[in-house]
Specification:
The protein has two helices and six strands, in the order βββαβαββ. By secondary structure, it is α+β, with helices and mostly antiparallel strands. The protein has a six-stranded mixed beta sheet, with helices on one face.
């Protein structure tokens, strides 16, 4: 099965040796997105909700570039430096990802790249 890398200028450039996403068959693996502004490459200013929204905006842009949307998500993983923000993740995610809900995990971590407080990755299933 051939792998296809996915890239869009509507999401931040990779800050390491990885692709924004990789498609293998009907599956798209979207790399973890922190709340970087695609234009500036800097963390968005604001509260935790602004950070969560930017992370989901970035995921949505990559999903579109892959030919899908977050409605195609089958697995979402959320990394938080403070699990007290979990309820806000639920609130924001519900505005980006429709039912039926994908499988999901939330993981508390001590640090994230660039000092972000949230990172979100997901897996999409796209029917051919």
């Amino acid at each position: 099965m051939a792998k296809q890398t996915i890239h869009t200028d509507d999401a931040p450039k990779a800050i390491g040796i990885y692709s924004q996403a990789v498609r293998a068959g009907d599956t798209v693996y979207i790399s973890g997105q922190i709340p970087l502004d695609p234009a500036s490459g800097e963390l968005v200013a604001g509260d935790i909700e602004a950070e969560i929204r930017r992370a989901f905006d970035n995921l949505a842009a990559i999903a579109r570039a892959a030919g899908g949307s977050l409605a195609d998500a089958v697995k979402v993983t959320v990394f938080l430096t403070d699990l007290a923000h979990f309820a806000k993740v639920n609130e924001v995610m519900a505005q980006y990802v429709p039912q039926p809900w994908p499988a999901r995990a939330a993981v508390g971590v001590s640090q994230l790249p660039k000092g972000a407080r949230v990172e979100v990755e997901c897996i999409l299933h796209l029917a051919r």
